[in-house]
Amino acid sequence: MTEEQFLVPQDTYLKAGIHIGTKFKTRYMEQFIYKTRADGLSVLNLQKIDERIRIMANFLSLYRPEDIVVISRRENGWKAVKLFNKVTGIRVFAGRYPPGIMTNPQLEEYTEAKVIVVTDAWPDRNAIDDALKIGIPVIALCDTNNTANNLDLVVPCNNKGKKSLGLLFYILAREYLTKRGLLEPGKELPVTMDQFMEE
After folding, report:
1. How far apart are CA 31 and CA 64, in angstroms?
2. What is the domain partition of the chain in residue ranges?
3. What are the beta bridge partners of residue 139?
4. First to last CA, the chain
5. Second label for 167, Cα 20 to 30 Å away, from 17, 85, 149, 193?
């Protein structure tokens, strides 16, 4: 794959550390690992990351913003998902996901969704449980230490770093809006990549 075929320049991916995994790897995630560094950290395959972000964007573009919910229990994802919400109109939960809000119409904050995206399958497992109960697809950002139980689409990436999550949600916002016809192809978002990534 040549550099031009990536969603962002390869260098941008590398600077954000989107490919840096953990020292622990699950059997499922091995297929996405390019190599293990001398310090024991696994390195994810950039082409596979890029490929899966594309698949996620294509799939999500089939849904209206109000039918998608993005969940991030992990604090490093809060800024990125809130900005993602501002740019795309897609609903987000930054912080604790209140269990049952997609399954119990009696709850005040009850919400309906047709697909969810979680930034980490382990801390966001309550949302995944709800999605399973109502039978909607689950897309999860997975690091090398994640398992793929009950997930419909795994997007391999460093799901713990602020810059990595910022970059991913920036790309996703741009691709989603472009595919929905709300952003001209090749145009940039009204917010910068750095705004998604800054500390």
Report:
1. 32
2. 3-181
3. 117, 153
4. 31
5. 149
